[in-house]
Amino acid sequence: MLHKRRFKKIVCFLIAPLTAFLVAVTHATAQQLPFYWDNINVAIEVQANGDMLVTETQKYVFTADYNNERYRYIPLDRVDEIKDVTVSENNQIIPSSTGTENNQLWIRWQHELKAPESHTFVIKYRVIGGLQLDGENTLVYWKAIATGRKAPVNTGKVTVKLPETLSGKVRSFNNFGTAAVPRQVDAKTFEFVASQPILPAQELEVQIAFPQAILNVPQPRWQQAGGSSQSAAEEPGFSIDFGGIFFLLLFGLIPVLVIIGFIENRRCPECKTLKLKRTYKVLIPATTSTSGKGYVTHHCGNCSYHKEYETVIPIISTDSGGGGGGG
């Protein structure tokens, strides 16, 4: 059997050119869309009965004309129910509709749009059966900013507030997905701030663990039915034999490419550490008839490497559409 380390090198050699291609295509596609998120801030208030009150504040920036329908998809595989959904702008409730599709809850709403302009929408909902039981711990384990977007998020933040009974009782708090800075604000409040723009293929997931006996919430129905919580430490490692090579290349290629692309996006060309930060600013928005101009900055937090340059934003395609987790 081929040694695992040697096999890794072979796979990386085979997919390296495709990685560069995928990253380039993703970046170009994101630039062509006439909108992006300036920020997405998610506040999660855990109730004493185990419910979670979630408030998503999403600021859209539209650089050109686009459709006026927005949407949000929330997976239902690890919750019992989501209810009390509202959408508002400027403290005014906006008519919205909800439904389920492919084991996801969708939320849709419409608004007036006269680009270029920005809109800040506030989406609120109650999650029932969202806390997970894991041994002696209860977990707040929530994918606050999900993948499936077609545009990037410039800044993202997740705040979790626990009931007073859990004050000072948290055993651990972590984040997964895109790089973020976690911190404890006070004895019952935790904050996770993304340290770089969140690309469409990236997510920000948070996890907080506390003793199960304090709230003593029942095991959610979905977990009783056979679902299981899985922390990052429990995710399968890299292991495969010759019989799985074809399956890996055919079905596992995209996730591998996304991971490698993320690493290379953070690697400094000088010191080779993963401390490189890339920022992108729109100077002149593109339209359906003229290209635009952007300004890119690369800065390494480990060495003195710094680079700035202008880039051309391609003419907006008129056939681009929405899809995924939010739009």
What would you say this structure looks like, in words?
Residues 1-5, 18-30, 229-249 and 317-324 have low confidence and may be disordered. The protein has five helices and 18 strands. The strands form four sheets. The chain has an eight-stranded mixed β-sheet with strand order 5-4-8-2-1-11-14-13, with no helix packed on it. The chain is α+β, with helices and mostly antiparallel strands and 327 residues long. Helices cover 18% and strands 43% of the residues.
Just name the CATH architecture of the domain at 36-230: Sandwich
CATH superfamily of the domain at 36-230: tricorn interacting facor f3 domain
Strand segment count: 18
Spatial strand arrangement across the major sheet: 5-4-8-2-1-11-14-13
Number of helices: 5
User: Remind me, CATH topology of the domain at 36-230?
Assistant: Immunoglobulin-like
Mean pLDDT rating: 80
Please bin the fraction of helical residues: 10-25%
Strand content: 35-45%
H and E order = HEEEEEEEEEEEEEEEHHHHEEE
What is the CA-atom radius of gyration, in angstroms?
21 Å
CATH level 1 name of the domain at 36-230: Mainly Beta
